Amino acid sequence: MAGLAGTHHALAADAHDHGAATPVLKLNAGSKWRTDAPLREGMLKIRADVEQKLPAIHAGKFADAQYAALGKAVEAQLAYIVGNCKLEPAADAVLHGVIAEMSDGVEVVTGKKAAGERSNGVVHMVNGLNNYGSYFDHPGWKPVSPKH
């Protein structure tokens, strides 16, 4: 994989791109959007990876190399989701907002985008995960508490 820039461009260029300049997070007529197996699988892996790292991040014991590894792991799952999930166009547009938030987090934790501490990127990831749970129907999904 060519790094986040490649993934970000791939996100914009693949079948998930529906021309929306700014994805808007919204419910499906008051209900959560349907998900498919690849989306649920990828999001579960991202949540597990992020949650596992939060205690060390909060303790200030997470090195730049660990942030970079976390970013690569999340980036790989986002690429898997983009390449495999098949949602209706309206749900897909909402998913773009979630992916954009998480992609911003990847750029910060990998050091490709300056935003102060690399831990700020993890905040984007947690926000993206929690937005996913708020807008998508994923049975058993639990929000990520940013304070572990």
Structural account:
This protein is mostly helical. It has a domain at 35-135: Four Helix Bundle (Hemerythrin (Met), subunit A) (Up-down Bundle). 61% of the residues lie in helices and 0% in strands. The protein has 5 helices and no strands. The chain has helices at 4-13, 37-58, 64-84, 89-109, 119-135. Helix 3 runs antiparallel to helix 4 (89-109). Residues 1-21 have low confidence and may be disordered. It comes from Aromatoleum diolicum.
What is the structure about, briefly put?
It comes from Aromatoleum diolicum. The chain has 5 helices and no strands. With 148 residues, it is mostly helical.
List the helices and strands and how they pair.
Elements: H1 4-13, H2 37-58, H3 64-84, H4 89-109, H5 119-135
Helix pairs in contact: 1-3, 2-3, 2-5, 3-4, 4-5
User: Per CATH, which architecture of one domain?
Assistant: Up-down Bundle
Q: What is the H-and-E element order? A: HHHHH
Overall pLDDT confidence: 83
Distance between the termini: 32 Å
CATH class of one domain: Mainly Alpha
Identify the overall geometry: globular
Rounded to an integer, what's the Rg over CA atoms? Answer: 15 Å
Beta-strand content bin: under 5%
Number of DSSP helical runs: 5
Question: How would you name the oligomeric state of the polypeptide chains in this document?
Answer: single chain
Mind summarizing the main beta sheet? none
- The total of beta strands comes to 0
Structural class: mainly alpha
Protein name: DnrO protein
Organism: Aromatoleum diolicum
